[in-house]
Input
Amino acid sequence: MNYSEYISLILLLPLAGFVLLGLFGKKLFKQSSGMIGVLVLLISTVLSLYTAYQYFFVNGKLNDVYQTIIPVKYTWLQFASGTSIDMGITLDPIAVMMLVVVTFVSLMVHIFSLGYMKGEKRFSTYYSFLSLFTFSMLGLVVASNIFQIYIFWELVGISSYLLIGFYFDRPSAVAASKKAFIITRFADLCFLIGILILAFEGGTLDFNTLIHRLTDTQSSQYISITTASFLGVSVLTWALTLVFIGGAGKSAMFPLHVWLPDAMEGPTPVSALIHAATMVVAGVYLVARLFPVFSINEASLYIVTWIGAISAILAAIVACTQTDIKRVLAYSTMSQIGYMMFALGVAHLGGESGLGYTASMFHLFTHAFFKSLLFLCAGAVIHLIHSNEMNDMGGLRKYMPVTHITFLVACLAIAGVPPLSGFFSKEEVLLAAFHSNKLIYGIALFTSGLTAFYMFRLYFSIFWNKSKSLDTHAHEGTFSMKLPLIVLSICTLLAGFIPFGNFISSDGKNLELPFLLNFSIAPVLFALTGIVVAMRMYKKENNLPHRVAASLGGLYKAAYRKFYIDEIYLFITKKIIFNLIGRPAAWIDKNIVDGTMNGIAYGTGKVSHWIKGIQSGKVQGYALYFFSGIIVLAILVIYFWK
Amino acid sequence: MNLNLIIIIPLLTSIAVLFCKGLKQVRMISLIGAAIQLILSFVLLYAYWQERAAGNTSTFIFEYNVAWYAPLHINYHIGIDGISMAMILLTSFIVLTGVLVSWKMPARTSGGEMLSKEFFFLLLFLGVGAYGFFISLDLFTLFFFLELAVIPKFLLIGIWGSGKKEYSAMKLALMLMGGSALVFVGLAGLFFNTNTGDGTHTFDILQIAQMHIPVEVQKLFFPFAFIGFGVFGALFPFHTWVPDGHSSAPTAASMFLAGISMKLGGYGCLRVATFLMPDAAHYYSWIIIVVSCIAILYGAFATMMQTDLKYINAYSSVSHCGFVLLGIGILTQTALVGAVMQMVSHGLMTALFFACIGMIYDRTHTRQMSELGGLLKVMPFISTTFVIAGLCSLGLPGFSGFVAEVTVFMGSWEQTDVFYKIATIVACASIVVTAVYILRTIGKAILGPLEKNQYSLLKDAGWHEKWAASLLIIGIVAIGVVPFWLNHLIGPGAETIMSNIKNVTIIK
Output
């Protein structure tokens, strides 16, 4: 089959699902909307897998280099200057990989939700939102035009908003959804300005043309964008930094990460889909999509690297102190995305130096599986316990064996224990960092130890530790909840063995991923240390955690309070923006601008009141005015008549 | 197709209403008339495209020209281009939905009477003024219709309004009249400086556009015309009638006010001021940009602090209408297209917003945010519509607002000067502030726990309200998802105006 014959269906089916369930779900398919959603996604997933097979194994390559194929493209909005916003579908290695990841994880979440959301009043609304999200995310990954990516970028943002605030009668959920949208909106503003700069300098919005023009050192566009500068920084750096801020907002990078932990107010399967596997990696994807342009600009790559590294370690530290299991996972997500970011940052275009690029995508790929698995397991636990707090859990391994085993698999993977998938991808990330920047490598290594610690802290606290006496009938969810766990854990076990460099590399050529046994020793040791420490502290109930926390003192408290970043935000928004800008603006409008208008009206009224007296209706008065007028005129005439 | 129908049918409808008895007859006739207007505007759109497809490249088509008062060279000259066509479509949408929203006529006069006949008459008559305004090609005729649309507003607010309605009605009427006075000075100034070749003057827009009015004259009269129309279009700092006027007006009147009346201003700025006085438009361009950027951001920040739903929407209208004037001020073809798109988009969107606010007010009898909450639970349809209007307002892709704003941004970024870039960035910044106040409003009024227990008994939208909201949403989505048709429609019209402006730069 030709791509153009079916490829649009991958996107349009979820869209149709959204429209159908959104408009008629409540009335027509109250019960069946879940099955409709699953069916739609199943078809999309099959088509995506077929596309991946076609692309990677049949016809994606030309002269051993993966090509960019654009099977579908329509002009959406044509501007008078000649540029246009197009809607298209791009197939290149990363887009195809993301197609598979998004549809597959989404399918798993759709299936899981059948059980998890059962009995929910707005069941069909939930599925329609999920479909909307899937559609938007797919549109984002296949975008052929930088504005198309922005459009779908906003759409995933709103789907995320709708789903975080799904339990809309909880004020905390409403606040969280609002926060998520507004912070990412701020980032999107920077993204938009970045797009405008790139579009203006490149003279096009089309990704391929844009990348081609801006990386060709002979082209006039390249010369203009690299030589022009604003406030002493080259325009290219400005543009890329702004675009990166957009990506950082969506990907919850420091300091725009504060929305992600709060976003856990949404239903847990949603967190698995949006806030673990797909939407939050959009920022990484964006940088990867523009990577050829990023790679010619050292300054912006530097920013990407350091923001990634800082986010990775900061989030890992905070994750060690949180007690809400979803929040731990949220910080862990942020930390892992930090890995992907700095892996991109240390990479360069082509050959061995492009290792970071491949590593980043590899980590994105494996992370999608084990992190969504972790969230779904957490969802299963929450479904049983009806609480997110670690303290309410313990000893659950007896009640939920499937969840226990799959969670363990995911924990081992994220900790980087061989031979699970996380080990391989993290290994490549560390290797890339090692080759380019030792300090980043050190941070990453330390973070991987922390990762192992907090994940196993979670694992032992939930499934071991003090045993909770639950109702003996307590058991895991339905088959629909177990199936995705099992499937995802199989993926987690096996995904690492994929020779990823054969498929994705910075220049589209084959890249043999190096595997050095000596190099693996340090990371694995760090991981094992983390696991052992966590086991010592949390496997059995003891007061060690408290003692450790007390001995760390201020550091523990700062980490527990998430380094007070939320408070800083609150200060800026509430105190500065509301009180120093909003309130004065409203006051000025009411009193000064409108006051002037009212003042004019008042003045007019006064004047007319005053001159009203002249028209008294008394003939004597009029005669008086008349004669005085004549006298005045006469004087004037006599005086000036010379 | 005879363009006169666009005026005659609304006029007949409004007159027919006067002969009806009782609310039932009145609203039935109004509905039928408004529906015919909507159909007619689509027929006109079809005919317009047919004509274009047949190769008619003249700037205005379906022209009709007859002397009205020959001694003063006043002609009744009408015709449409793509821009007028878009505005006619908008007007017909608003008229129909306004009638539907007023179906139950909940707004009574202070005396408690219904006066439904008069209410519908005035609404429909306002429509007549707007239709006439958008198709006029003669300055005097245009002015005539502009005035025709002002008086009904005064009465609609003064009689059926709420709150401090006398104050608001007076304020609105006086400010708009003041605007009209300025417009008139501008038009008269233009008129006396035209020269048709045989020593006579003309009011004809097409003829004036061909002439070159002396630059000094343009510089003198451009501010009159622009500010005059700008008052209608919420030009900073002449926007203060907007919040008071909207909040006191009955629902349908608010919809008309925001959906149609404010567009008269934008259209006038474009068609009269910029089109006929291109040199001055260049000369004053930077002032327009500065002022509209202030309106955009300042309006948005002022909105953040409002607590009354209608005030929120009114202030956000100030902010959104800033985009119209910004698009006009930037003077690139893309930005002009964006300005017109923003007019259409804002018209549909605010009408939807006001309709929702009206529906909520009819049920809860409050518009204060602090007294609302959790409405999604009891009235899902109205709440969903409210959310859609909000999302359109914050520029979500898929709705019309995004398309319009992006077109303005792209258009302004085409100008190479740094000044324009900074202006664009300032305008862009409003998307964040807009998100803040929209989500704050939605979060408080629509989501969250139910504020008062008695709200749980409230009923969701009736059929007429559902129809009204659905029509507006269809319009918004039709622009947002497939914008190219509107782009194709407006493009040539904007090109005509641009060609006038470009000539100037060449002469300079």
Summary: The longest helix of chain A spans residues 565-612. Chain A touches chain B through 49 residues (CB under 8 Å).
